[in-house]
Amino acid sequence: MTLQSRLSNWARSLSPTRRQFLQTASATAATALVAGNLPRKAHAFAYEPYPTDDELETVVTSCAHNCGSRHMLVAHKKGDVIVRLSTDNGTYQGDAYGTDTEEKPQLRACLRGRSYRSRLYSPERLLYPMKRVGERGEGKFKRVTWDEALTEIAERMVYLKNTYGPTALLDQSYAGASYGVLHKSDQIEGLLARFLGMFGCRTNSWSVPSYQGTTISSRITYGTIEDGNEDDAYAHTKLMIMWGWNPAYTFHGGNTFYYLRMAKQRGCKFVLVDPQYTDSAAAYDAWWIPIRPNTDAAMMAGMAYHIWDNNWHDQDFIDRFVQGMDPGTMPEWAQGQESFREYIFGELDGTPKTPEWAAEICGVSADDIRKLAEMYATTKPAALKASWAPGRNAYGEQYNRMAAALQAMTGNIGIVGGCAEGVGKAWHAEGVAYPYDQYANVWYASIKSDRWAHCVLNYPEVKREEIGLWPRQDNLDGVIPNIRGIFWQGSDWFNQLTNINKEIEAIRKLDSYGEGESLLVCMDSTITPTGIWADFLLPIATHFERHDVALPWYKGHYYIHRPVVIQPLGESRTDLQVFTELAYRLGFGPGYNPRASRDYFNDPTAVDEAYLEAWWHNVIDHQGADIDWATFKQRGVYKFVFDEPHVAFRAQIEQGVPFQTASGKIEIFSGQLASITDWTRTQYGYPIPAIPKWVEPWESLISPKTKDFPFHLISPHPRWRTHSIFNNIPWLRETFSQELTMNASDAKRLGIEMGETVEVFNDRGTCVVPVYVTERCMPGVAVLHEGAWMDLDGKGNDLSGNPDFLTLDEPSPAGAFAYNTVLCDIRKTDLAHRPGWDQLSTARSHVFRRDL
Q1: What is the pTM of this model?
Q2: Which of 218, 423, 584, 604 is least crowded, fewest Cβ atoms below 10 Å from its Cβ?
Q3: CA distance 603 to 600
Q4: Residues 6+ apart with CB under 8 A from 618
Q5: pLDDT in tens, 598-625
Q6: The domain 704-843: what is its CATH number?
């Protein structure tokens, strides 16, 4: 039957009324086409017509969030409004369209970066200074002027310092979305750190939630956290072991997937060791080895045993570059102490760490442990990429130290295609444009970040080891900080640190001291769960609204210019403007910002330009950039081109340059740890073995606690958020949902079906979330991505699915945050899941606009 016949039959089947309507409409349309000499202009639109490219101005800028990379964004704007965002197409450094090479790859933004316009123009955008008028956490604020807000903040700062001493104000800055060379939120080099240090009242948060156990491991093993290769070195490996690493979600480098794809095309084999089968494993057809969470160090010990037992280790490398791998490489002063090899073969404790021993702990078969050990030891070069996630566990440093031992014993350090990571920081960027002087990291107490609530709740009956109190050389050593105020800058830590219910309890205690006896300040561009609990909300300009330069994120050798793309919305100011104005009010303005006058709060243009241009001259002098500041601004990006891949410790292996440790070698036996006699007088607080060891965590699937809480919960980073950033973006929430992933056999046993709502709970808290049932997660393990914005009901249950209501803030000696050391149970519930603030933004946004 022809198309015309089918249409005729369809028309005859219609009722007379519908046929008449269609015939009349067709006739009318045909008459209009014939009779009209010119198309008539429409007189009404639901919205303005979308502008074409030739009507838009194009401005190069970048992402700003703390996701594991920073890529180019290209803003297309009309007037002072960004209409859309695109990304690198190869032309912005003067190359041809589409240029994308191994030496100079495109810096293409992901779905998070491409959604930034939705965050910039969010209904929850903070536009004016706000002061709390309701109960703490109720979310009721009124609009105030900048003068009112800063006057009261400055007066309260002085009062708290004079009344409660130099530790009264807690610095909780982090890398959020205020991270560039000039506008920087950071615990060490950041603007808040310098401001509070110069003010003379600062308790520092010394540990990094993402990888603190890894940081300690890298420093004691290599003497530095710059233990990473640039990602182009991955293209040359023959075996990539992704240990707890899912680069499809968290890149840890600007072009990770680009180079891993090259490796795959060149014949590289991929292995994934992880409790869940990730998108990265699917992309590279990886051999998936499911492992019980928090047991990675045991499996690695079993691999080490098998490598030694078959004489696959690189003894020449060990003898030349490693301390403490075996009795022959122990330092003279430590003869008789246990070496790593003696531990692995159980010569002192009577327990050989065989693959069978490891299998009982980690749930991986002994045969698979042996197979992986052989693959790694006999393939050259091979990359054991020990990612951060398995280190976010109780005693997480032992996993990273065990990985370093495997990397060293196989000789895969300092060679192209090998891997020494670790922290993974690679090419060194020139990271600071403002004065970095003696005040840059002044603090009067420094505690582990997630122990602040414990400190507040138990003050003054707190032992220094309970909070990881850093040692000092003055009369403040050992003095427990009397925390009365918190500055949150570039951080949503109240939503992101472990054991949120304990944090809420601590905030309530601060509130109980009475009016004016505490101070909570949140500096951000949008309202956040942290901001709900603040006394003051200060609207901070986004990176589209301030002048800066974007740094690469631990990997990547490039800089991206960030001009002022649009003028700040509302009364937004930059972090540097706010701290400069506060510094003037507190008496040290010229010292804090020496290039600025008091007028900087109203016009930062010339000052920011001067700082950044001087910084670029340092890049030219120290790193060999070959274009001037004006050209860099015009192009928007500068990509360094290397003659060969940047490989960590290449100079040590090829040229004999000493490692940055006391011994000048890779310290598998740590002289620093072995020399400590009083652990309470260290930031660690509790003993750390001098060699890598399996240390049983306080909660795991081999713990007796599984009787009450039979599931091990892990909380990896999602693809659709950066920690908690972007949680309120409707575009991303329509694409991905917060849900609990569990194995199909577990769901069947509990009578739970796909999409049903469950409570995930333990003795610390409860959260409510829908279930995703799959075979891509091993039995006994549940997966709940971190970063959902807390949303509490009247009983303290979190209805958004935030896993940090279940995490524990116990001190792990090397500072590792135990996000993935969590036992829980799961049950169906009638409680309603509230999936995200984006669905409530219109209703809630008025709370942050209205005058009360």
Answers
A1: 0.92
A2: 584
A3: 5
A4: 430
A5: 999 999 999 999 999 999 999 999 999 9
A6: 2.40.40.20
